[in-house]
Amino acid sequence: MWRKSKGEVEFKLTKSVFLAFHPDPAATMETTVTALFFSEALYHLLVLMLSLSRGVHSVPVPTDLPLCTASEPAQYSLSFSGKWTRAAFPKQYPVYRPPAQWSNLIGVTHSLDYHMWQRNEFASNGVREFAEKSEAWTLVKEVETAGERIQSVYGLLSAPAVVGGTGQMDTEFEVFARHSLMSFMVRIVPSPDWFVGVDSINLCDGDKWKESVTLELFPYDAGTDSGFTFSSPNFETIPQDRITQITSSYPSHPANSFFYPRLKHLPPIAKVKLTKIKKTNQIISLPVEPTQSNLLPTGNEIEEKIINTPLDCEVSVWSPWGLCKGKCGDSGVQHRTRYVIMHPANNGAACPLLEEERKCTPDNCL
Fold first, then answer.
1. Which residue of 163, 182, 194, 220 has the smallest Cβ count within 10 Å?
2. Domain Spondin, which positions (predicted)?
3. Whether the predicted pLDDT of 52 surpasses 70
4. Do the Cβ atoms of 176 and 111 come closer than 8 Å?
């Protein structure tokens, strides 16, 4: 695991800084005003230098969040469980080329002034490449830059990909009082730019570390590709949109793979459990390729209720009425048809009639 030093970079403009520029206490009022103006300009320049870093999400430290005062670091296990089943998500469920699966997990432990990704904000280039292609190189470089420039990042963590929609992946990581938050991403495969993840979960509670945290995960759209379905071809979003959560009614397009208008909320597509463990000095070596061992749950999990999401039948619009056929002097009959776009599943609404007929007056009687 890559780590940065525990040191912190601080920039303070205090009275001593001002006096360093003006040791003479008898300085004129004009000199004093000039020095104050210079100090203020220098302060804003330093803030600007810290904030401007391509791909690094540096934000002001929130003042309404309690600071972590834990005296010792803590080590956690992370267990990611996919819940992406055909029963829970029957619409356009990918079964081949490729089937439903999860990418590698990439995460980071960090301080309050850093975001790997953030809802309703624009994705960085690294987040874009990971959400679209599962490529983590640029994202890793962005994390390293944040650690080197503003000391916001402590460690990088990863877990191997899951070659199935319901598999499990595990890893471990360490947190400190200065870096008590953890964020991660896992790409939904296949998808245009969809992922699940956590943004800045704080594992510290005052002077103590939380024993366990369990979160249900829902899909997000990175805002960089405009595809509607799992297998949509690449269709770049111009201009780039913000990261948004995908729901059963948003995007409100019937072609969307997560569009279930009968549902108030989507069922969770994954789950993550963070558990505090006894700290050891062992160096953890993580596999970087998918393995057969993480295809299925371990068997130690509590059995959960199976979710069956109803999928209503979808049909096309009616075709034009056909020719009116009949004998001269008698009423004729004409037909129109429609076809099934999506078959029903899990007790969803059945398909309506696919053919209609009506009486008509023959145009060319026999």
1. 163
2. 64-254
3. no
4. no
